[in-house]
Amino acid sequence: MASLIACPHCGRRPKEEFTIKGAALVRPEPEADADTWFDHVYLRDNPRGRYAEFWHHTSGCRRWLVVTRDTATHELEETRDAALWRRETAR
Amino acid sequence: MRYSALSILKNGLFGNKGWKPAWRTPAPKPHYDVVIVGGGGHGLATAYYLAKEFGITNVAVVEKGYVGSGNVGRNTTIIRSNYLLPGNNPFYELSMKLWEGLEQDFNFNAMVSQRGVLNLFHSDAQRDAYTRRGNAMQLHGVDADLLDREAVRAMVPFLDFDNARFPIQGGLLQKRGGTVRHDAVAWGYARGADMRGVDILQNCEVTGIRQSQGRVLGVETTRGFIACNKLALAAAGNSSRVAEMAGLKLPMESHVLQAFVSEGLKPFIDGVVTFGAGHFYVSQSDKGGLVFGGDIDGYNSYAQRGNLATVEHVAEAGKAMIPALSRIRVLRSWGGVMDMSMDGSPVIDRTPIDNLYLNAGWCYGGFKATPASGFCFAHLLARDAPQATATAFRLDRFKRGYLIDEKGQGAQPNLH
Amino acid sequence: MTSYRLNQGGLIDRAQPLSFSFDGKPMTGFAGDSLASALLANGQRLMGRSFKYHRPRGVLTAGAAEPNALMTIGKGGRTETNTRATMQELYAGLTARSQNRWPSLDHDIGALNGLLSPFLSAGFYYKTFMWPATFWEKLYEPFIRKAAGLGEAAKESDPDRFEKCWAHCDLLVIGAGATGLAAALTAGRAGARVILLDEQATIGGGLLSETATISGVPAPRFAETLLAELEALPNVRVLPRTTAFGWYDGNVFGAVERVQKHLAEPLANRPVERLWRIIAGQALLATGAEERPLVFGGNDIPGVMMASAARSYVNRYAVAPARQMAVFTTNDSGYALVRDLEAAGVSLSAIIDSRAEGAAPGLYKGSARIIPGAVVRDAHGGKSLSAITIASQGRTEKLGVDGLAVSGGFSPIVHLACHRGGKLSWSDENGAFLAEDRKGLALAGAAAGLSGLATCLEAGARTALALLDQLGIAATFAPFPDVEGDIVAPATKPLWSIPGIKGKAFIDFQNDVHRADLGLAVREGYAHVELAKRYTTNGMATDQGKLSNVNAIGLLAEARGVSPDEVGTTTFRPFYTPVSFGALAGSSHGKHFQPVRQSPLHDWAKKNGARFVETGLWYRSAWFPRAGESTWRESVDREVRTVREKAGLCDVSMLGKIEITGKDAATFLDRVYCNGFANLPVGKARYGLMLREDGFIYDDGTTSRLAEDRFFMTTTTAYAAGVLNHLEFCAQALWPELDVRLASVTDQWAQMAIAGPLARAILQDIVDADISNEAFPFLGARTVSLFNGALAGRLFRISFSGELAYELAVPAGYGESVADALMEIGKPHGMCAYGVEALSVLRIEKGHVTHNEINGTVVPADLGFGRMVSTKKADFIGKHMLSREGLVAANRHQLVGVVPLDPATSFRTGAHILAKGATATLESSLGHVSSSCHSPHVGSTIGLALVRAGASRHGEEVMVWNGLRGEYTPGRLCDPVFVDPAHEKLKV
C-alpha cells in the first residue's frame, strides 16, 4: 500500500489520514436474491493484483474514495471520489 | 535417525559427519491418496497426523517454496488457548494439549515454552470482557487467572504503572500460554511426516486443479500433474488464490501483518504480555530478542511487507506499555500474508466440490493452532467427518448465520 | 598499556582530549574519535565476547556492520545496550561496558562453551533437551535464556525526548561519500530540493579515510569544500548522523537522526533522536560497499580486522591497528592499506595475495614482502593475535604478527533497494550481488559495483542528472577535478573457502556460525539459503549478516555445486541498522500516548468534585464524592437515589452528535436505521437501531427531527466516529443521489441530562417556553430559548434513567455557565451532579442496553427490539441478512434480567449463567452477565444477561458462575426492566 494516497480533493496525503473499509462493491438492488446478497456481504475476489477499494479520507476532506491499486506491488493506479464512481457504475 | 543427547555426543565425537538429512527430497509420484497444498505448519502437521494417527501414508505435501516458507516462519511464536466462544475454545485447548506433548511425539525440540500469556486490561469494560473470557476458559478446564493491578505489578514491575494514559487495572493470565520456536515446528512436522512415508515436494507450485464432473482429480504443478483421491488446501495467506483454481470464491481477504524482533538482550521479560490500550504484544525468544507485533496494516496485500505508520504505532504502544523499551533497538521487521476471514475464525471443512477439502481463514492466529489444525484436518480427510472440537469451522456458516465472531466486528475482515 | 596513537595525521582534534571509561578503566581519546578508535588507541583490543562460544573478540570494522565491538553505554534510563563502538562518537565522560561475559571480559566462564563446541553444532538444541518434558521450562530453558542475549537493558524510564517529522524533496541522496556528494551537488546547483544524509557524524564517507588527493587537496579536505558549497545552498538540507533505515511504499524513506547521542547530557529542549519520514521524488543510493571478510581458521581473533577498517583507523583516526601487521587480500585494495601503513610508519611483515599473479603491475611501489598465490590458513592467539599460518603452493609458513588486515572483495550495500521486494542478481564480473534500479530509486558508485574515486564522482553526478531528468528538472554536468593517488581495485574472483583450515573459520562472527555449521546444514537438508540461515542463525545477529551473508551464500554455492545466483540471498528487510523504540515512538508514550478529549463540562465537573474515568479518549466524570462518603459505592448509591427521588444533572456531552440535513434526510435515515424515521414528526425524538449490513446491531441512539429537512442524531460515545464514517459512506458511496449532508457537531454542543421527578421544575426556571407535560410531552424535541432569550438551546425529552428527564444542549462555550445555573436552581430541590457510574446503575435498573449488550453479535430481536425492525421498508442496511437461519434461531442469546436468590449475595459482570444443577462446562453455559450493579432501588445486585432463549426463561433459577473469582451465586432470571416496567414515570 502506498504510504501516500492522492486524494482527488486534497492532493497527496499520508496514508494515516485515511481509513480503509474494503472491496469497492456495488450494493445489490433491494430485491436481489439471497445468494446475491450473501455474495456481496461475505465473498471476496481477493485478487493478487489490481483491486478497487473504499478508502475514507477521515482526517481530511471526509470524502469516501475508490482507490485502485495492486495488492502485489502496492502501486497506486487511480483514486476517485466514491460518489462519482457510484454514479458511473450505476445499475 | 533418532535425536537425543546421545546422538549429539556420538556425532560430535566424529566431527558431526554422521547426521542424515532431516527429510528426503523425493521425486513426485504420479498418484497419492492425499495431496496437501502448502508445506507450512498446517500442511505439514496435517501430513504428520494423517500418517501417524490415521495410518494414511501415501501422502504428498506440495510446497511452492521451501519447507516452512510461509507464516509458520513469520510470526510472533505465541501459543495460547484463551478463547471465548464455544466454537473456538475447545479447539485451541486441543491445540495446547498437543503442543504440550509435541516434542516427545515428533522427536524434535521446538522449545515449547509455557511461560505464560498475560493480557492487560485498563478499564472496567475490558475487565468484564476478560472476566467473561476467563470464565469461559475455566468452564472448559483451561487455566485462567484474573490478576489485579498489584499482582500484575509483582509479575512485571517495569510496565508503566505511574505515568500511563490508560492506567493498568489488571490482567488475565494463562500460565500455560507461551511461545514455541516457530521454524522448528515446521521442521519437526516435516521430519516426522517424512519418516512415516510422506513425500515433501519443495519447489513445487500448484498451477491448476484438475476437475471432472464436480470432482477433483489432482493438481497441475510446476513439476507435472499429480493425481490424488483427496486434495487438501492448507495455503493460508494464499487460500483465495488456490481456491480460485477450483472455481471457489472464499469469505476471506489476504492482509499483511508485521512482526518485529529487537537486538538480543539478557533476560528482560519472561512471558508474553499484551497491551490492552493499544496494539502491542511482546515476548522474548530464547536467543534474547524481544519478539513483538501489533495489528494488521489493514489493507489487502500479498506483498509480505508493511508500512512505516504501522511500525510507528506498534512502537508507540510498546513504549506506552513498557517505558524502558525506549532505548532498546528494533532489529528487523517482516510481513506475513494472512487469510483474514469474515468473522475472524477459520474454516476446516469439505467444499462444495467433491474430494476438495479446505483449511483456511486463520487470520493472524494460525500459529498457535498448528497442531490442532493439522490433527482436525487429518481427521476430516481420513474420516470425512469433522473432529469434535472443529465442528463449528464450517464453510457454510456465513450463509447460514452461525458466525464465530470473537470480537463482534462483523463481515469486515480488517477489523478482526 | 602503551598508546597505539600515531603521532600525526587523522581527523581528530588533539587539542580536545576526552576522558572516558571502559569496564571502569579510565581512558583518554580525542574529539573526532569513535569509541572503537579511542579504545584501540588505548591498546584495548579485546572489546567483546561472542554469543555462543564467548570467544574473545576485537573490533573488526570501522562502521555500521560491526558484529563484535558491541557495548553498553550510558547509565540509568539512558542505558543503551549493543552499541557499536565503531558508530559511537566519543564524548567526555562516556562510560562503556563490555557485554556477555562473567565475571569479566578477560576471564569469562562462558568461554568454556568453546570446549564443548563439537556438541554445540548448528541446531544441536533441536535434537536434545526433550527429556523429561517438564525439565524444559524448569532447567534447560532458564539456563539457555541466561546464557543467550547480549547486553542487559535497563528497566528504568528514558528521561529524554524524541520527535518525528516529515520532509519532502526532489532528490534524496543516501550516503555522503564521493558519489553522494557529487550527486547532491549536481542536483543542488540545479536548484532541486535535495536532502543528503549520512550515518556518520562527519560528511565525507570513504573520503574521510582516503589518502588520495583531488585537485591537489587531500580527500577529507575536498569533502569539506563540497559540504561548504552544499550548506550554502538554500534548497539543500544536509543531515549528518542520520541513517536511512527503510524504503517504504510511495517512495517514503524512514530515517533516524541521532541528534544528541554524542553528548553526555542532552539538552532538554532538543530530542535525542529524530525520526524522519522523507517523501522523495527520486532517491539515490550512494551507500558504498561492504568489505567481505575471509573465512580462515581463527579469523575472529582480536587483531584481525577488515583492511578498509584498518585504513580508517590509520588515516582518519590516527591509530595503528597493531605493532606488526600483515595484509591478506584477494584484490588490489589491500595495497592501498599497505601504502598507508607504510606512510604512517606501521611495521608490515607481508602481503598475502591470494592471486597467483598478485597486484596489477606498477600498482604497488613499496618495499613490503609480497607472497602471491598464498592464503592465510589459520590465525593464532587467544585474546590477541600472535601469529598466522600462511599456505602457499603446498608450503606453510608461520609468521609472528599482532595485526592482520583482510580483504575478500566488496559487496555493494543495497539493502534499501530490496525493501520493497527487489531481488539481487549475482555478477561474476563484479564478484558481488548487484541490485537493479527501481522506480524512484537508483544506485550509483560503489553501491552499484563501481570502484575508484574518479569513477564514483562522475557516476554520482551523472546518475543525479538522470534522476532529475525524470523529474523534469534540468541540470548540467560539471566535471570534477583530477584525482591522484587513488588505488582502484577492480573486482576479483571471490575466495570462498580456504583448504586445510585447522581452527574454527567464522562466517557470522557475532552468532558464532562457522564453516562446519554450514556444511552440517547442507548435509541435514537445510541447504536452501533461508533454511540454512534459520537453522544455523547465520545473518540473524545485530548486524543482520552485513559481513556474513555473502560469504555464507558463496560457501553454500560451493557445497551445492551451483552459482551464488542459484543459491540466492535471504530477504533484506528493514531496518538497515537497528532503530530504537524511542525514535519510532516519538512523543506518543506515557500520558501522551493518545490525545485527551475533555467535555465542555469538564471544568464544571471538576469543581463539583468529580472523579474522572478514561472512556476511550474522553475523561468522563464517574462520580461526585461528598464529605463523609468513604467509598465510590456510597457516592453512586446516593446519586442514584437522588435522581430517582429528586433530580440530578449529568454530563452527556461526549455522546456523538451528528446534524443531518437535506431534502432527502428522512429517506436517508429510513435506510440507515432498521426502524422507520420518514414518518417522524417535526419536534419529536425517536430511538433508533442501526444495523450492519450483516444484520447485527451496530449502534443505537436517539434522533430528533428539528425541521422537515433537519435531524439531530445522537450516537453512543464509543461509536461516534464510526457512525459518522458509516453515514458518510452510505451518503457518498451507496446513495449519492440523495440530497443529504452530514456534519459532526459533537464538539459544538454541551449536553446535559436533567433527570428525576423534579427535573421539570428546575429546568422550567431557565427555559422560556412552557415545558409542561402537555406542551412538551415525552419524546419532544425542539429548539428552545433560555434565560429570557439570552441563549438558544435544544431540549429533548428523553430518558435513559426511566425518570422524567430531559437532555439540554447548549453551545459548548455556554455549557459550564448553564450547568452552574441549573445546579444553583436545583440546590433547594436537592438536585445533585451525577456521574457515569450512577448513569450506568440507572440504565441497568431500567433495562436499557449499551455496548455491553450490543456486542456485535446481537440482532434486534435478541434485545427485545424485534418489533422495531420495519417489515414495510423495502430496504435498509442489514435487512437482507437478517433472516438467516442462525439469526432467527430459537436458542439465540436473549436479553434478560438476573438477580441473586439471596439479596445479600452478589455477582459480577462477566460471570456465566448455568442452568441450576448443571455441570460446569462450556457446553452447559447458557450465557453471561453483560452488565451488573448494586441497585439501590431493588436493594441487591442486579444484572442484565444474554442467555440462550432467555426471553422464555424469566423466573428460572440459575447458577451465576464466576470460577475466576470463586464466586458461585444462585440467581433467578427475570424481566430486564427493574424500575417502572409500565414506563409511566418518564411520561408524567
UniProtKB/TrEMBL annotation, chain A:
InterPro entries: SoxD (IPR006279), SoxD_sf (IPR038561)
Biological process annotations from GO: tetrahydrofolate metabolic process
One GO MF term: sarcosine oxidase activity
Protein name as catalogued: Sarcosine oxidase subunit delta
Gene3D superfamilies, per database record: Folate-binding superfamily
From TrEMBL, chain B:
Entries under Pfam families matching the protein: DAO (PF01266)
Record SUPFAM superfamilies: FAD-linked reductases, C-terminal domain (SSF54373), FAD/NAD(P)-binding domain (SSF51905)
GO cellular component, one term: cytoplasm
Localization in the cell: Cytoplasm
GO BP terms, alphabetized: tetrahydrofolate metabolic process
GO terms assigned for molecular function: nucleotide binding; sarcosine oxidase activity
InterPro entries: FAD-dep_OxRdtase, FAD/NAD-bd_sf, Rhodanese-like_dom, SoxB
Catalytic activities: sarcosine + O2 + H2O = formaldehyde + glycine + H2O2; sarcosine + (6S)-5,6,7,8-tetrahydrofolate + O2 = (6R)-5,10-methylene-5,6,7,8-tetrahydrofolate + glycine + H2O2
Domain spans labelled Rhodanese: 34-78
Listed transmembrane segments: none
Protein EC: 1.5.3.24
Keywords: Cytoplasm, FAD, Flavoprotein, FMN, Nucleotide-binding, Oxidoreductase
Known cofactor(s): FMN; FAD
PROSITE patterns xrefs: RHODANESE_3 (PS50206)
Main location: cytoplasm
Sequence similarity: Belongs to the SoxB family.
Name of the protein in its database record: Sarcosine oxidase subunit beta
From TrEMBL, chain C:
Domain Aminomethyltransferase C-terminal span(s) in chain numbering: 894-980
Domain of life: Bacteria
GO biological process: tetrahydrofolate metabolic process
Xref: InterPro entries: 2Fe-2S-bd_N (IPR042204), FAD/NAD-bd_sf (IPR036188), GcvT/YgfZ/DmdA (IPR028896), GcvT/YgfZ_C (IPR029043), GcvT_C (IPR013977), GCVT_N (IPR006222), Sarcosine_oxidase_asu (IPR006277), SoxA_A3 (IPR041117)
Every SoxA A3 domain range: 502-586
Keyword Oxidoreductase attributed: yes
Keyword Nucleus in record: no
Annotated NCBIfam families: soxA
PANTHER family, per database record: AMINOMETHYLTRANSFERASE, AMINOMETHYLTRANSFERASE, MITOCHONDRIAL
Protein family membership: Belongs to the GcvT family.
Protein name as annotated: Sarcosine oxidase subunit alpha
